[in-house]
Amino acid sequence: MLVVGATxxxxxxxxxxxxxxxxxxxxxxxxxLTRPMPYVxxxxxxxxxxxxxxxxxxxxxATTGFTSTLVFFLLLLLLLGDATASVGLDQRxxxxxxxxxxxxRRTLHSVAGSILALALVMPSAMARAVTFIPIVKRLAGxxxxxxDSGFESAAFLVLGHVNPIASMALMTGGGxxxxxxxxxxxxxxxxxxxxxAVLMLPPTxxxxxxxxxxxxxxxxxxxxxxxxxxxGIRLEVDGEGTTPLTREQRIVGIxxxxxxxxxxxGSFVGLPTVLPAVAAVTVLSIPPVSIISAxxxxxxxWGIIFLIGAMLSILDVMDATxxxxxxxxxxxxxxxxxxxxxxxxxxxxxxxAVWIRILFSTGSAAIVVAxxxxxxxxxxxxxxxxxxxxxxLLVVGSTTILPFNTTAVLVSMDRGPLSHRDIASFGIVTMxxxxxxxxxxxxxxxxxxx
Length: 450
Prior knowledge:
Layout lengths: L1 H6 L8 H19 L4 H14 L6 H4 L6 H18 L2 H9 L6 H15 L6 H18 L7 H13 L12 H13 L5 H27 L27 H23 L4 H12 L8 H5 L3 H20 L1 H12 L7 H18 L3 H18 L4 H13 L9 H9 L4 H30 L1
Helix pairs in contact: 2-3, 2-15, 3-15, 5-10, 5-13, 5-15, 6-7, 6-8, 7-8, 7-9, 7-11, 8-9, 8-20, 9-11, 9-20, 10-18, 10-19, 11-21, 12-13, 15-18, 17-18, 17-19, 18-19, 19-21
C-alpha cells in the first residue's frame, strides 16, 4: 500500500504530496489495527515516513501532533490515575460506597452508582473494572448464586460496557473525552472544563443509568433474594474499610481535590487545563512525597500516547496537503449528501464513526481518526459541529461489538461469565441507547445550554 501510493502518479483531485500522505495514513491504520509491532514503533515509523517521502520540509513539521496539549495532558492524567491506584485510594473509595444488605438488583445498582462516583477521581475505566471485579465476585458469593447467574452477568456487563460511559462526563474523565475536547478546541471553538461538564454530565448520567437498567433486564437479575447482616460478608480486606487513611492516601486525595477545584475555577479565569495537572503530578513526585516514581512513568501506556501524537501529526499534514479535502470530495460523490436532510447526513457521519470504532481497540484512537473527517463534512454542510462532536463521542464511547474494542470489556469477559454473543448483543443495546440520548440532547438539552 505504501509503495503503490508513493510511486504511482497521483489520483484525480490529489497532489503528489497528498497521495503520499494518504498512503502513510492508510499504512499507519493497517499497522495499528493488526499490531505486528508495538504502537510506539509503528507511530514513530509513520511520522518518519512523512518526512522521508518529502510531504513536509522538516522532521519537526512531521511531528507537530506531539506538541499538542492533549499528548501531555493525557500522560499527566494517566500518572494521576496510577497514583490513585498505587496508594489503594481507589479500593478504599469503592468499598466505602458499597453496601451488601440488599437484593441482587439493588446491589447491581449500588455497584453501578459506585463506579460512576469513582469515575470522578479515577479516569481509567480499566482500573475501575479491575477494582470492582473481586467485589462483584464476593457479592455474588454472598448471595450464594451460580457462577453464571443473572447478577454476575449483569455486573460484568456494567464493568465492561457501562463503566467506560462514565469517563465521558468530565473533560478530564478519560482519553476519549480529552481527545474530543482537544479536537473541538482546535477546530470548532474553545471549551472549558465547566463548559464540558454542563454539556456532557446530564447526557452521560442519563445514558449510564439507562444502560445499567438494561444490563439488569438483559441478564434477568433477581430482585427478591436478600443478604442479611449476619451472613458474615465483608467487603473490606484486613479491616481496610475501618482504618484511618494512610499518609499517602490523604496526600493523593488532597491533591486530586485541589486539581478538580483548579479546573473549575480555571474555567472562569482562563487557566489552561493542563496547569493543574502539571502541578498535581509535580507535588506527588517531589522527594518528600515520592508517590509518583520513575517506575510509574515507565509503566505508563506509552503506546496510546504515541499513537495519538502520530495520528494528530498525520492529520495536520493531510490537511496541509489537501488530502482530507480530497477524501471528502470522493465520499460526496459516492454518497448523495446534497440530497439528504441534515439529520440524514448526521446519521451517515455517525455511522462512519461507528464503523471506524469497530476497527479500533481503543475509543480514543477511533475518535482521533474519525472526528476530524466528520467535522469537515459538518462544516461543508452547515451542521452544528459541537453537537456533532459530542454525538460522535457518546456513540463511539458506548459501542463495543468486539471484545478487543474496549480493554474493560476484554477483562470482564476474561474474569466473568460473558460470551462473545453477550458482548456483541449488549454492545448493540448500548449503541442504540447512545443514539437515543444523543438525539434527545441535540434536540432538547444542548440548545438550552449553548
